[in-house]
Structures are given as structure tokens and as C-alpha cells.
Amino acid sequence: MTDRHAEGMRIRRQVLGDAHVDRAEAAKTELDAPFQDLITEGAWGTVWASDGISLRERSMLTLALLAATGNFDEIPMHIRATERTGASRRDVLEAFQHVAIYAGVPRANHALKLARATYAEMDAAERQDG
Predict the structure, then answer these.
(1) pLDDT tens profile 49-105
(2) Residues 6 or more apart whose Cβ sits within 8 Å of residue 67
(3) Does residue 86 contact residue 57 with C-beta atoms inside 8 Å?
(4) Does residue 13 or residue 1 have the better pLDDT?
(5) Per-residue H/E/C for 34-98
(6) How many CA atoms lie within 13 A of 14 on its CB side?
(7) Band of the pLDDT at 116, cuts 50, 70, 90?
(8) Is the pTM above the cut of 0.90?
(9) Contact 4, 45 (CB under 8 A)
């Protein structure tokens, strides 16, 4: 394991939580293991590990980019991560408003729909735990 991979796993766990990473690691197969290593080292061990901007700002950028490019599948995961990165619900709304202006209202609208549903799930889980 490289230093970048180890740092990527550390950041990935910090941002996404141990439970999420443990599930992803358990689901890893021989086919996708090289891809998982690529994103662990590249996305998490390089981009997310950089101290150039905060994790809060990275969350906002990531959510805006996912929405703007129509890559909606990972939005719920990154909404959940905001609990660990410090991006508030207002921050997320602001990011998606930027998407509406610069990439299109339908994409921002769909991203907000996903955010609302994910926050509702998070709130329900918190009520059960609380």
C-alpha cells in the first residue's frame, strides 16, 4: 500500500465515515479493485487530502460539480458527508443555486430533490437514535 493510498483511506473515512467505507471495501471485487485503488489514491489521497481548501469547500464544490455534470448517483453520499465536512444545508443550497445559474435549473432542481430526500432520511435516523 502506498502512502497516497493510506492517506486516501484516512481522508475517505474522515469524510464518508467508517461504515460507508467498510461497506464499499467489503463489496470490492477482483474486477473493480484497481478502480477502487485509483479513486482512493487520486480522489481521496490527492484531491481531498490537499490542504489548499477546506473539506467544507470541497463538499460544496463536489456537490455543485456532480449536479452540474448530471452525475446524480453520488449526491446522496456527499450530502451525508456534509455532517463530517462542515458544509451546512445553507451551503448546499448556495452551491445548487450556482448550478441553476451556470449549468441549468433542471439539474439544480434534481440535485435539490435528492438533497431533500437525503436530509429527510438523515433527520429520521437522528430522531430514532436520539
Answers:
(1) 999 999 999 999 999 999 999 999 999 999 999 999 999 999 999 999 999 999 999
(2) 75, 95, 96, 99, 103, 107, 108, 110, 111
(3) no
(4) 13
(5) HHHHHHHHHHHHHHCCCCCCCHHHHHHHHHHHHHHCCCHHHHHHHHHHHHHHCCCHHHHHHHHHH
(6) 17
(7) very high
(8) yes
(9) yes
pLDDT at 129: 84
Could you give the CA distance from residue 123 to residue 129 in angstroms, rounded to a whole number?
10
Max Cα distance, the chain (Å): 43
Q: Which residue has the cell 461497506?
A: 23
pLDDT of amino acid 29: 96
Mind listing the domains of the chain with CATH numbers? 1-50 (no CATH), 54-129 (1.20.1290.10)
Average pLDDT over residues 98-127: 97
Q: Residue 24: exposed, middle, or buried by beta-carbon count in 10 A (0-12, 13-18, 19+)?
A: middle
The candidate with the shortest Cα–Cα distance to 13, out of 48, 54, 46, is: 48
